[in-house]
Amino acid sequence: MRRVAVTGLGCICSQGRDVDEFSQALSSGTSGIGALTIVPTERTVCKVAAEVHGYDPDDWLMPQESQRLDRFAQFAVIAGREAMRAAGFVPSREQGLRSAVVMGSGIGGLSTLDIGFQRLYVEGHNKVYPLSVPKVMLNAGVSALSMQFGILGPCYAVSSACSSANHAISLAFAMVRSGQADLALTGGSEACLTFGMVKAWEALRVLAPDTCRPFSKGRQGIVLGEGAGALILEPLDLALARGATIHAELVGCGLSSDASDLTLPDPDGAARAMQAALLDAGLAPEQVNYINAHGTGTPANDASETRAIRAVFGAHAGRLAVSSTKSMHGHALGAAGALEAVATIQALKTQIAPPTINYLEPDPDCDLDYVANQARPMPIEVALSNSFAFGGLNAVVAFRRYP
Predict the structure, then answer these.
(1) 167 classed as catalytic
(2) Are residues 76 and 203 in the same domain?
(3) Which of 2, 10, 11 is nearest to 227 (CA)?
(4) CA Rg value for the chain
(5) Based on the domain organization, do 207 and 349 belong to the same domain?
(6) Angle, vertex CA 227, rays to CA 223 and CA 233, nearest 5
(7) At 256, which helix (H) or strand (E)?
(8) What is the DSSP secondary-structure string of 273-290?
(9) Which residue from 368, 352, 336, 364 is spatially nearest to 11, judged by alpha carbons?
(10) Which of 11, 13, 162, 253 does the annotation list as catalytic?
(11) Is the pTM of this model over 0.85?
């Protein structure tokens, strides 16, 4: 089994238009949550979101690209391009045969679907945009990236709600580690801020009215976000041989299913995913320093995740730094794990645990160290990043600092 290096990172989200901006915002505790502007809010209770502010596809894409790609796929291409540039490696045709793209998305081309339905059902038009189907499909970003970089090996999309990106990363990791691929571009993207989707989340009664306060007493729910994160994975020996920068080492993944409820989290399922990640990585619980928590800001999720962490780490749980960066970049659904993987790797690189901002006061059901409100310089050698999805689908990835 080969060791797997992360040699490239890319992202776009409410906190930043690239990895450097994102990292600076995380370290400074700068929130990307603000007024919802890309959706009419006259008929919505929710007025806030973590949208990519001032986004103009022409800043990144050629006009023909932006016309053919839904917003979620545009984000995937933007983050993927940054990651490939950072890796400094464009595969030859021969290398392309040994390369892969695996990206996650919970919803896919929702904006295109929303616009098409508006034309058909509200405005009474009898036709929609001719490329609606390829714009809607979940693999649109994957296909665009494969074409752009000549990646000829396994290329596909993964959809498992809020765990989509971590499931994609886990599959890409398995391919590189096993020798099936010598390079994998992986992560996740989402653009879920449409009128219909905001109303759907309102119906679940889990949207916060003001901001996201994970693990805090008085938390009222999630804030929807959008964006994309991307990682380049390579075998460590091949990456070193070509002189690549090693951002971190991906050392393990753990997957589980609750098999109990569509929406209510089960701490046992979350615990089994973390335990599986530790076992896969050959790590003892005491070796973990930091956890980037799923931390949605809902009463049920945060208490359940806290119980799961205590079950896995025992007495060491009290010595862990645990934070939810969703307090800053919102909940990007299928892209959440990708953004949080980038945040976790940046924590390893900078030796700074990002904060859980908007924290008011402790909740008796959430009794861990949540790095409240301010980032914390600290030694971080090993970190986990948790994703737990509706449907009870859990995926945890483990990273180790590379010297």
Answers:
(1) no
(2) yes
(3) 11
(4) 20
(5) no
(6) 125
(7) strand 248-257
(8) HHHHHHHHHT--GGG--E
(9) 336
(10) 162
(11) yes
Domain harbouring 386, CATH code: 3.40.47.10
Catalytic residue among 167, 247, 294, 329: 294
Cβ burial 252-275 (10 Å sphere, 16+ → b, else e): bbbbbebeeeeeebbbebbbbbbb
254 forms beta bridges with 396
Do 257 and 235 have their domain in common? no
Distances (CA, A) of 226 to 209, 300, 341: 18, 23, 15
Structure tokens, 267: 């701490």
Where helices occur in 205-325 by DSSP H, the ranges are 236-241, 267-281, 299-313
Active site residue 253: no
Residues 232 and 336 reside in one and the same domain: no
On whether residue 246 sits in a domain, the answer given is: no
What is the number of structural domains in the chain?
2
Please state, in angstroms and rounded to a whole number, the distance separating the CA atoms of residues 93 and 106: 31
Contacts of range 256-259, beta carbons closer than 8 Å, 24 or more positions apart = 256/394, 257/392, 257/393, 257/394, 258/392, 258/393, 258/394, 259/392
Per-residue confidence in pLDDT tens, the chain, 403 aa: 999 999 999 999 999 999 999 999 999 999 999 999 999 999 999 999 999 999 999 999 999 899 999 999 999 999 999 999 999 988 889 999 999 999 999 999 999 999 999 899 999 999 988 999 999 999 999 999 999 999 999 999 999 999 999 999 999 999 999 999 999 999 999 999 999 999 999 999 999 999 999 999 999 999 999 999 999 999 999 999 999 999 999 999 999 999 999 999 999 999 999 999 999 999 999 999 999 999 999 999 999 999 999 999 999 999 999 999 999 999 999 999 999 999 999 999 999 999 999 999 999 999 999 999 999 999 999 999 999 999 999 999 999 999 8
Number of alpha carbons in the 13 Å side-chain half-sphere of residue 334:
29
Asked, for residue 373, whether it belongs to a domain, the answer is yes
Extract the tokens encoding 311.
Answer: 């079950």
| Domain range for 271 | 253-400
- Which residue out of 167, 247, 329, 331 is catalytically annotated? 331
Instruction: Return phi, psi of residue 172, to 5°.
Output: -65, -40
- Tokens 């906190």 locate to 15
Q: How many residues does the chain have?
A: 403
Active site residue 162: yes
